[in-house]
Hints:
The chain has 789 residues and is mainly alpha-helical. Helix content is 56%, strand content 4%. The two termini are 29 Å apart.
Amino acid sequence: MSSPPPLAALETADPADADLRLTPAEARGLLQSCYTQYAMKLHDVVRSSLEMSGDLFENESHIADGEVQGFRNKRGEWMEQFKRTLDQLFAKRLAGHKRKGRRLDADASVATLKVLTAFDHEKQAALTTSTSFLRRFVTKELAALDLRVDALIPEKNFRDIDNPFAPDYILDAVGSTSRAIYPNPRIWRPVMERLTADLTPAINKIYISLNRFLADRHVLPEIKAALRARSEWRPQDDTELFPAFSRMLAEVGQVPDVVVPESLSLPGQAPGLQFDERGHAAARPAPPEDDPLALVLPADPLSNVTVPAPAFVPTADILAGLSALARLAQQAPAAGGGEPGEFPGLDPMMALGTSTPLFNMLGAWQRLDLRTALAQAMPQGAAGGDGAIIPLNLIPHIRTAVADQIANPTDRITMDVIALLFDYVFRDGSIPETLRSLFGRMQVPILKAALLDRAFFSDKKHAARRLLDHFAEAAVGAGTDDAYHRAFSTTATLVIDEVCRDFEIDMAVFEQADAKLARFMDSDRRTTEEALTKDVNEALSAEESGKDRAQVLAQIRDKLAGLDVPFDVRSFAETVWVDYTASLVDSDGVNAAPVQAALRTLDDMLWSIVAKERTAQKARLTKMIPALIGTLRRGAQSLAVPAERAKAFFDALYQLHIAAIKPRERAPAKPGEPLPEGPVTRPLPVANVHDYVNEMVPGTWLQFRVEGAPINARLTWISPLRTKYIFTSRSRARAFIYSPEDLAYQLSAGRAALIVEPVPLFDRAVSAALDTLAASRARPGGAAALAQP
């Protein structure tokens, strides 16, 4: 898989559409607050790495003892210089000066070019590998942070986001400091390599913290959901979207059926992710290649069953029905006619020139319930056998039926793209089966809108595109609430009837329809807010009364962020250690030394369970363990933790410490492959349910199992300190109230499942279509292997 392009112009990242309403001074204040915590955490990691670097030049006989001692003596000076450099780089960027020049870790001085030894080459290669791994490790978090920082920095150049928190700025600071303090490349190269390796996981954690900090302050809160749903093949700017489809369709040669991913599909991973019992994102089975019409998402998203495709009416019979309907349309009165003696009206279609017959025919089909009309117009006896049905997606058949009227290749591509998008619409599990026929009636109007106005693909505010997105948003969750289902069906039918009746070439018809649908959605939202008043007040009161504990829990969530932590450790940290630290806050104050010591103990525990490969790390761990265990035991005893629970935790911790000290076994290489070595073997971050839940945003839909019955519910409200999430069903008959920790357990245990995240339908459909085209292009035989029989 190729590397994803920079997401500099992600459409959903437009600050004008976000909850962001900040003055320049407020935006600058947020950036400064981010930098304060970023720098503090970065300083701590760098200081710790330098303190454990005493073994850096062990067994390096070609480096003089005096130089090694000089390196050790100057570590304090290095630290102070690093702090100043980092501050200067940030201040310069905030003043409007963008980063220029090449990386400072590339040594191109004439002297060193003449005397590079095997050691120099090895260290330069290791440094290059480390920096490359760092960038890959932080890719996902950095993509979101780039867009959030760009929303706060005044200048706008979507193709060149210059984030002052990005790895290049850190590497600049590390590189320039190392060169200044240790001029000898045989010293600064190993120093940089060591620091880069130690900083990598810490930088990812820092980015997670900054993303959460900004999201909680309404800076693009939904951006991570948008990034999860976004295809790596989607261009940076939607003005390039239609050309991208054109190129990929030309390579594929035939329009395949879209495979619908779940919303939690992550870049570089298979579609269809859900969480396993350990809280890791685990892939669900993909549809078999020989059954492209299998529905990946059945009506019950908690089920793992793949639904086989139904038998469809043969294409020839559908085309015959379309021809019959076209003949009837030609016999109908012209659109611009009137009663005898009346002044004739102007036909808006006259503005279309040679395309008039095509749009007249589409207009005639648009005013019909096309599937029902086809069933009546098809030749007698043509039904494809008992039980066969007319497919929901009729765009491919319409394209074939009007092929002789399409002179413009661009129009043919437009029809193909709209067919791909509706393939997604009719397979998206967030849209109830019972409402898909309503979306079916929107096919011809949307097709006409795209043919008439290519801005449909490039303008996210296009009226037709926005109406389709709002229909999908309002439909989610209707499947398990009969009263809402009826109310939405009634409103949607009236709106669609008006669009199908009135739309000729004026996009204002979609704007008027969207305004009516928006009023329905606003009314439903207000009713939900009123129904939640009691639950929200109770949650706020509970959070305020336990504010100390909530704030401690927020800090501990931050420390656990981005880590694949064993269950025993996470459980202890989120319960016992939170309660213990909160008790210290209550007795001594939030900034008291005992509180800070308790938080450092948690940091030490989390560090202690990670595999140790260096002599200095193992020495520190061996020295640390007795005091660490003693402090943890005293904390548990102060809360009178039951002996059985304490024993289970300390037994698990003992095994983790043994595993951390043992040398890590490398996976055997395949025949003919070299053994892996160096940073390449380090794993990338694991997507886990805890991080996902801690960053969940309002508008996310889950399905809960209640006494065996599924209930769809939307995340409607989150308390300020994230102690409570409130989900409501469409009928508001009940609310589901969880802490993030409890909700993570529900998802891991399979008692709740994701339906959809708050990402517009159009964006989800575009990404699924692009991914399907890319997969078809890469598969032997192209799309022919996926073609419908």
